[in-house]
């Protein structure tokens, strides 16, 4: 029995690490890919000899090799609630080589009150290769095996972890600044300075002001927004070249997953079969559960890896609301198990409705329910499906409910009234809505009703070439559409060289991941968090206005939100819509 389990784990490990011998681990500083786009040399000729530093906009991805288009300003004021994270972006450009560029931020002070520098994060923004939408401009789905067929360029997105770097002549260096306002901060305007030092002693400064409003945003763990970004632990193992589920593997995952927890993530992504998505990513997902068909035809199940992963995410990372288990209906209807009689991995091919399908899943689900109850996780767990048809879902639901009628079920896909009541967690594709009466009933029943985007949407999206404000727009859309939150299929399914090249063989660049290795966030991730925070603020204000029967303010707030619909995208570009709405939101 143990021998079979070891063979199964070895099989899984080999599959997960296949090809990693050619992988060049990138740590610390690194050389970005070359940007081949045209450069305006005349604009550089007109620049002064000294380096220039100015505040810019967080809604702009500044070109690496061209003079930035900014209204040069040395003072910036941004506003936020207590407990909110607020972003700023500065831009450095230079006609000469600069060595050992570093950043420091002072405490922000308001009389005797202080926002300490320790809550202010600074990052050099780095450049990654991207491509474009499909040629018809209608989305980013479809195979892209020949990179030369797509217009490619480097774009600003990576928020790097290095604190000192060189900046080459005739180039720009964006700088991202994030201030997480402590919840106990006294309202008022806090002032400080950002200092950029280069060539050992020379320095440039900017003035930063943060206006703290007299409202409080709760900690991310307590946000109402249901965030479900799917995690890929296998990608982390391959990138860092560490054994799956080793201490080194968990150490590498911890900061990446804590970033997700700090965004208010509610769901742990688990896999209960080999290749639930048919290996569509660079690192396919394997089963976290060992299945063995014994000599006598009965089944044995082991949950060592599943338990390890879930305990890690709950107890060390702090994500503990829900466990989604993929899947009973994979993209390829081929199911693995270790066969004791032949001492090897075998596969069953069966579709929902087949006896072989029920014979495979029925015993497992019954034992899985027993195990989950023994761990105290049953009520948190869903059996999850992704974009599966009605007939297959109906057959799978029968098998699930026959195993344990109290099992929760989730689906990301189309709305089917025939099965809606069976689904605890139902996520609809962008552009689709829940009927108002259905959503009201689901709310009363404590069910989850969310929206998702994928490669299909030209906008809004989080491709590496997407305007940053589109990520923020998503949070506003979730509120306008009366959704409980947002799902995206890939948090960290990294490409071969994710720091260098976000392009992938199947979808538009950046579709596979929104954060980078070694705890590097991105412009996209930070802007997505902005939208989630806005959702929370709107939710809090709505409750307050309802409780106080302040109909005029409630109507004004609802009107502000109402334009963030798919139809609204054709009327106002997301950047302008988001900027105006966020300004108005902070006036309530």
From TrEMBL:
Residues 230-541 form the Glycoside hydrolase 123 catalytic domain. Residues 55-197 form the Glycoside hydrolase 123 N-terminal domain. It comes from the Bacteria. Coiled coil: none annotated. InterPro entries: GH, GH123_cat, Glyco_hydro_123_N_2. It holds the Pfam family Glyco_hydro_123_N_2. This is Uncharacterized protein. It comes from Parabacteroides chartae.
């Amino acid at each position: 029995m143990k021998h079979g389990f070891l063979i199964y784990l070895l099989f899984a490990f080999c599959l997960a690490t296949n090809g990693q011998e050619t992988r060049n681990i990138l740590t610390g500083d690194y050389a970005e890919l070359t940007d081949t786009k045209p450069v305006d040399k005349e604009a550089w000729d007109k620049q002064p000899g000294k380096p220039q530093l100015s505040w810019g906009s967080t809604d702009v991805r500044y070109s690496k090799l061209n003079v930035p288009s900014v209204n040069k300003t040395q003072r910036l004021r941004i506003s936020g609630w207590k407990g909110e994270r607020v972003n700023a972006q500065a831009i450095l450009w230079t006609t000469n080589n600069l060595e050992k560029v570093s950043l420091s931020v002072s405490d922000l002070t308001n009389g005797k009150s202080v926002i300490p520098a320790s809550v202010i994060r600074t990052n050099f923004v780095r450049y990654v290769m991207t491509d474009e939408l499909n040629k018809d401009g209608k989305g980013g789905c479809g195979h892209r095996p020949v990179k030369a067929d797509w217009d490619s360029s480097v774009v600003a997105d990576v928020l790097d972890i290095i604190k000192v770097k060189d900046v080459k002549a005739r180039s720009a260096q964006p700088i991202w600044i994030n201030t997480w306002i402590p919840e106990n901060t006294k309202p008022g305007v806090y002032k400080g300075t950002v200092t950029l030092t280069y060539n050992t002693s020379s320095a440039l400064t900017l003035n930063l002001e943060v206006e703290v409003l007299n409202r409080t945003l709760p900690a991310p763990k307590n946000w109402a927004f249901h965030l479900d970004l799917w995690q890929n632990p296998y990608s982390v193992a391959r990138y860092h070249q560490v054994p799956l589920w080793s201490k080194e593997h968990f150490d590498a995952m911890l900061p990446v997953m804590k970033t997700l927890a700090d965004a208010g993530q509610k769901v742990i992504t688990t896999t209960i079969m080999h290749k639930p998505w048919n290996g569509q990513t660079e690192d396919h997902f394997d089963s976290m559960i060992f299945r063995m068909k014994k000599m006598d035809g009965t089944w044995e199940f082991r949950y060592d890896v599943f338990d390890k992963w879930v305990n890690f995410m709950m107890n060390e990372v702090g994500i503990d609301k829900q466990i989604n288990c993929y899947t009973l209906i994979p993209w390829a209807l081929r199911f693995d198990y270790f066969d004791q009689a032949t001492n090897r991995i075998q596969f069953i091919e069966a579709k929902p409705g087949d006896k072989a399908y029920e014979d495979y899943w029925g015993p497992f689900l019954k034992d899985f329910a027993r195990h989950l109850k023994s761990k105290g996780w049953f009520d948190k767990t869903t059996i999850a499906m992704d974009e599966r048809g009605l007939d297959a879902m109906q057959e799978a639901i029968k098998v699930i409910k026959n195993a344990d009628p109290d099992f929760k079920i989730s689906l990301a896909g189309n709305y089917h009234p025939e099965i809606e009541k069976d689904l605890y967690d139902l996520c609809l594709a962008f552009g689709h809505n829940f009927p108002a009466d259905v959503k009201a009933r689901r709310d009363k029943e404590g069910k989850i009703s969310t929206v998702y985007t994928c490669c299909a949407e030209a906008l809004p999206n989080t491709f590496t070439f997407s305007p940053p404000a589109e990520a923020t727009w998503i949070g506003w859309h979730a509120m306008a559409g009366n959704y409980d939150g947002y799902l995206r299929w890939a948090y960290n399914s990294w490409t071969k060289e994710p720091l260098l090249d976000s392009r992938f063989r199947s979808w538009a660049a950046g579709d596979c991941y929104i954060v980078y290795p070694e705890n590097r966030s991105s412009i996209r991730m930070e802007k997505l968090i902005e939208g989630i925070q806005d959702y929370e603020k709107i939710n809090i204000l709505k409750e307050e206005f309802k409780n106080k029967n302040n109909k005029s303010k409630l109507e004004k707030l609802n009107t502000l939100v109402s334009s963030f619909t798919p139809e609204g995208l054709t009327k106002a570009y997301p950047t302008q819509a988001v900027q105006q709405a966020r300004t108005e939101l902070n006036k309530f």
